[in-house]
Automatic annotation (TrEMBL):
ANK repeats lie at residues 34-63, 64-96, 96-124, 128-157. This is Uncharacterized protein. The keyword Chaperone does not apply. The chain crosses the membrane at residues 20-41. It holds the Pfam family Ank_2. InterPro entries: Ankyrin_rpt (IPR002110), Ankyrin_rpt-contain_sf (IPR036770), Cul2-RING_E3_ligase_SR (IPR051616), TPR-like_helical_dom_sf (IPR011990). It comes from Triticum aestivum. The keyword Hydrolase does not apply. It comes from the Eukaryota. Keywords: ANK repeat, Membrane, Transmembrane, Transmembrane helix.
Length: 331
């Protein structure tokens, strides 16, 4: 396919301009940041403590709606989390990315999660635009985080996407969730069972683990490990279009820059252009779904997330996006 516009012909001025936009926006953001945020960015516990003792407001949110506890959870710093909680910050404030527990789980920060849970963070909390905490931990690929949540009482069969659908290709999470009572016979949004997802995108071991606990699927004629793998692979029509690699990389990097400055409209537009070049890249769909989600368009977010999970069922982050979109529409 002919490119619409290519870097080879773009004047350098435009290129420079594109580079300067993020710099400009980063500078304007600095105005919002309090000394407390600066201390956190620098990892200075002593300064944080001093500021908090002298009247710094630990509840103040930044321009993106994140308060210091969200930020500490994203850093995964347990001491910082502990300090903020000791100063009276509530444990479950909701941001665009969910509660601090969501953020810690999604980033695989088990130590920070431990502190939050010790302070009674709600491990079954439902918030618009974020999925269950268990799904966040699976998306973060951390079996440690998954365990912490289950031990704290998270429901292993809850959610608009079940944990086993999202964990079908993560061997450690899969084993643990089955032991904890997760149901392997609930299909995904396209009618595929976790074992089919594992056969399509996971390892043979994942299929072997699921085989003894999955009910026989009538459309699979040869009900054996090899039979299921063969069936799943022949049913999917996977093919990649790897042309335009360079153009795609440029579009992605522009889109990510737009995402970074919360310009979801531009990012979504860039992803749409990128999709014309590569119709088989599920990450484009997942990120455009996030853009629509942040713009409050649940239906479009859902459409992209559905397409993403259909294309790449073994990718937990895709399932997380789908759950988040459904949750936005529901709540
Ligand atoms: C999607 O967004 C994430 C940040 O949220 C970024 O790290 C990643 O590179 C993006 N992927 C694509 C294909 O743009």
């Amino acid at each position: 396919m002919q490119l619409i516009w290519g870097y080879g012909h773009a004047p350098t001025g435009i290129y420079l301009f594109e580079l300067l936009i993020p710099v400009f926006f980063s500078l304007t953001r600095l105005v919002y940041l309090t000394p407390l945020f600066w201390a956190m960015i620098g990892g200075r516990m002593d300064t944080m403590s001093y500021l908090l003792d002298h009247g710094a407001n630990p509840h103040k949110v930044d321009d993106r709606g994140f308060n210091p506890l969200h930020r500490a959870a994203r850093r995964g710093d347990p001491e910082m989390v502990e300090l903020l909680l000791a100063k009276g910050v509530s444990v479950d404030p909701v941001s665009a990315s969910g509660t601090p527990l969501h953020i810690a789980a999604y980033n695989g920060h088990d130590e920070a999660m431990k502190i939050l849970l010790k302070h009674n963070a709600d491990c079954n909390k439902i918030v618009p635009g974020a999925e269950t905490l268990l799904l966040a931990a699976i998306a973060g690929s951390s079996v440690k985080c998954v365990k912490l949540l289950v031990e704290a009482g998270a429901d292993v069969n809850d959610g608009l996407i079940t944990p086993l659908v999202a964990a079908a290709t993560n061997t450690a999470c899969l084993k643990y969730l089955l032991e904890a009572g997760a149901n392997p016979n609930v299909p995904d949004n396209f009618g595929r069972m976790p074992i089919e997802i594992a056969a399509l995108d996971g390892s043979r071991e994942d299929v072997e683990i699921l085989f003894p606990v999955t009910y026989c699927i009538p459309t699979v004629h040869d009900w054996s490990i090899d039979g299921i793998i063969h069936h799943a692979k022949s049913a999917s029509m996977k093919q990649g279009d790897h042309s335009n690699v360079r153009r795609m990389a440029e579009l992605k990097s522009l889109a990510v820059n737009s995402l970074k400055r919360n310009d979801y409209f531009s990012a979504a537009t860039l992803y749409s252009v990128a999709m014309k070049h590569d119709r088989h890249d599920a990450t484009l769909l997942s990120n455009r779904s996030l853009c629509f989600l942040r713009m409050g368009d649940g239906h479009k977010a859902l459409q992209d997330a559905l397409a993403c999970s259909e294309m790449r069922p073994g990718w937990p982050k895709g399932w997380y996006r789908l759950g988040a979109a459904l949750m936005l529409l529901k709540v």
